[in-house]
Amino acid sequence: MRTIGNIIWILCGGIITAIGWALAGILFYITIIGIPLGRQAFKMASLTLAPFGKTIVYGGGAPSLVANIVWVIVIGFWEALAYAMAGALFCLTVVGIPFGLQLFKMAKLSFMPFGAQVFSVA
């Protein structure tokens, strides 16, 4: 199911979203101060390219908490809201539920990306 889900995901827009996140990461990396934001953009790019079969582990302590608070105020809230609304729309149909669940995973990561790690599930 993982492979089929990822293939459908990529063909239906996952590649475009991942390229967008990667371009945002490159733009952030151009400025020295934007490197931490660029790392988070590349993290989102890796998840949005093929989300099926990946899990997210949260941690990082107080520095990540402070960075996540700033992230939420600047952009994280709106990103998470957009992913959550898209996930809710996908969950309206039985066929869309697996894709909606992946969008909810991305909503959580886009809300608090600092201190999170994306792992492939074996």
Describe the structure.
- There is one protein chain.
- With 122 residues, this protein is mostly helical.
- Helix content is 73%, strand content 8%.
- It contains 4 helices and 2 strands.
- It has a two-stranded antiparallel ribbon with strand order 1-2.
- Helix 1 runs antiparallel to helix 2.
- The longest helix has 30 residues, at 61-90.
- The model has no long low-confidence stretch (mean pLDDT 91).
Task: Write a compact overview of the structure shown.
The chain has 122 residues and is mainly alpha-helical.
Specify the number of helices.
4
Largest sheet: 2 strands, antiparallel
β-strand amount? 5-15%
Structural class: mainly alpha
Assembly of the depicted chains: single chain
> What is the arithmetic mean of pLDDT?
91
| Strand line-up in the sheet with most strands | 1-2
Helix proportion of residues, in percent? over 70%
Number of strands: 2
Distance between the termini: 13 Å
